[in-house]
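Predict structure. Chain length: 515.
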Amino acid sequence: MAFMEKPPVGKVLLDDTVPLTAAIEASQSLQSHTEYIIRVQRGISVENSWQIVRRYSDFDLLNNSLQISGLSLPLPPKKLIGNMDREFIAERQKGLQNYLNVITTNHILCNCELVKKFLDPNNYSANYTEIALQQVSMFFRSEPKWEVVEPLKDIGWRIRKKYFLMKIKNQPKERLVLSWADLGPDKYLSDKDFQCLIKLLPSCLHPNIYRVTFATANESSALLIRMFNEKGTLKDLIYKSKPKDPFLKKYCNPKKIQGLELQQIKTYGRQILEVLKFLHDKGFPYGHLHASNVMLDGDTCRLLDLENSLLGLPSFYRSYFSQFRKINTLESVDVHCFGHLLYEMTYGRPPDSVPVDSFPPAPSMAVVAVLESTLSCEACKNGMPTVSRLLQMPLFSDVLLTTSEKPQFKIPTKLKEALRIAKECIEKRLIEEQKQIHQHRRLTRAQSHHGSEEERKKRKILARKKSKRSAIENNEEHSAKYSNSNNSAGSGASSPLTSPSSPIPPSTAVEHAPF
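Prediction complete.
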């Protein structure tokens, strides 16, 4: 298929960032092994679930592949004798469930291709490296001056984005990086506008945006070439990792956790906020800020992957901010993601969970003030500050930036309007997802409350009281009928005497409240 040909009709665009959960429902013993029946669910909808069958050997194979992460994962050990005993199988099932819980709640592992293929083979059976190579090979037929040096395998976190180290034939010592990416679920631009905007990216000049050397696109993917940077990204600096290593190896389990110096935090933070403000003022949606998307060039931060929002790719932190209904614009998404980035620069690692209840000691209280405004419970509940507001905060307001490069990014009026509409569509999908998650959370809380031991006791007590009250009312009604029948039998005689023990009918008087 030539690079500029149309993609196949009916292509399914999954959001790869929607979490998968897995629960072992049962096990079945065959002649020499045990199979575990697992229910996998995408997101919050029970309807979006399926069954898979896995053996222990499948778990073992996955675990071996994940060893590159450097994490000590809790896979139950092998057992050669007595591994068909009922008690052993039940115990192993608990251990395997714990293993699934760990890999599906680890933010990096749950998004990696290995785990996705294990849990959802139907949607992740394609060889994306092979697809990318085919597309890149077609591109080289029309652009013969480029040449592939080697694939940069798994250096990024995205399943459908692949990287290749490149060179120009007449400049063999110069190294470049080619990135190829498939379309995502938030691609709302028309094919024509999409291709025009992708080809416009090399004209974007800003001291804090990493220059695109070449860019082209078809209706199903985009291909961009940038200079290769030996020092790597801001995340590589923080984690002291090698840029060419796989993502799992670089960032899952750093050997030494150490944040940056205060002056670095201030300077890098100010530079990143300035470029975000530039893009926001231009009406260009970003939404993809994280430490791996910030290239370091000396002491200068340069933003990467402006094409992601045009391709409609979901954000690295989407599973975080989709939980908070006040983070519902791409501007507020950028600010929230900046909070994650600032936390990583400060402490040398990502936060354990978001929102963050309390922050560890930082090099300055000014750092904590910014973190609280972007990651705290109050911030996530009430909404994010603007980029302009962050620039005015003490941490960044006294940072002086010196650059001779004048920002330049001319977007035609027609394409600006297309970007505005696409941005609204992206935000609309986010708001709808947040609404569904909020409703699901409320329903889950109500069901949990309804099923709690304390609530069951309360309902039993109320049921007994209601039953007792009903019995008393029935007795009183029966006594009243008996009394009335006696009065009728008297035929005008004086009222019969009532014994002190006879029940007194309830009063029928109505008490009126004063006006």
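Summary: The radius of gyration is 32 Å.
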